[in-house]
Amino acid sequence: MGIPMDDIHAPTVASGPSSGHSARDVSKLSMPELMQEKERIETELSALSSVLNSHGVTMRSTLTTFDGYPRDDIDIAQVRTTRVRIIHLRNDHKEVMTHIEKGLHDHFARLQNTPGTTTNGTSVPSSAPTSVTDNSIADAGILGTPFARVNSVEPGSPAHQAGLKTGDLVRGFGSVHWLNHERLSKVAEAVQQNEGRPLSVKVARKNESGSGTAELDLQLTPRRNWGGRGLLGCHLVPL
Questions:
Q1: Is 17 in a helix, a strand, or coil?
Q2: Do 112 and 104 touch, CB atoms closer than 8 A?
């Protein structure tokens, strides 16, 4: 009777491992290893997306003709296998990102409990050595990775009063960082949700001499009626 057409779109999951990479318990990986795993998964996902693109299909494209027969213009077996692998990798990526996020939250929680901040919130120098965990996070490039650049600042705006300058690289905007900013959409959400309340904005700024970079933690309060458009008065562009 031929191949049942109603099953042609359903991915076929192999009983064994789906790739040459053995299953890893990501909960036991260090932060640098998690970052390496994230990059590996994203690289493979990019390659698999190229495979689908070469066939002119997506994860949702139909594999049958209008009258229910398998399409003869694509390699259906390869497309189905590729889709299965993409599904596996997306799940793996989600799990890895969950552990990275947890590591970040744990790290910032430790920072808040670390001596070196006065009762009025002003930072003071601390000679306490950085822990091994802190170093592993920093070495992985998670903390402080810039995700946006200040493209312009309006005179007299909240951004100007906070001390932001054109060319500053944004490392943190409230709770938003490079792993969760979602093309700066989360920055916009943070601004809307904190109108009239100060937000910590961490930026890296090149020294005027051109050598070295200054790390600044600015307090920016989004507000209206400052004489210009928006709540900030600055333009951010994603990196």
A1: coil
A2: no
pLDDT digits (tens, 9 = 90+) for 183-209: 899 999 999 999 999 999 999 998 887
Domain residues of the chain, as ranges?
5-16+25-112, 144-238
Contact 150/164 with Cβ under 8 angstroms?
A: yes
Q: Which residue shows structure tokens 């994230």?
A: 38
User: Of the candidates 124, 101, 105, 112, which has an alpha carbon nearest to the alpha carbon of residue 38?
Assistant: 101
Tell me the fold of 144-238. Pdz3 Domain (2.30.42)
Query: Which run of H or of E encompasses 138?
Result: helix 132-139
Contact 190/184 with Cβ under 8 angstroms? Answer: no
Residues 6 or more apart whose CB falls under 8 angstroms from that of 4 comprise none
pLDDT tens by residue, 61-84: 999 999 989 999 999 999 999 999
> How many helices (H) and strands (E) in the chain?
5, 5
Beta bridge partners of 201: 173, 218
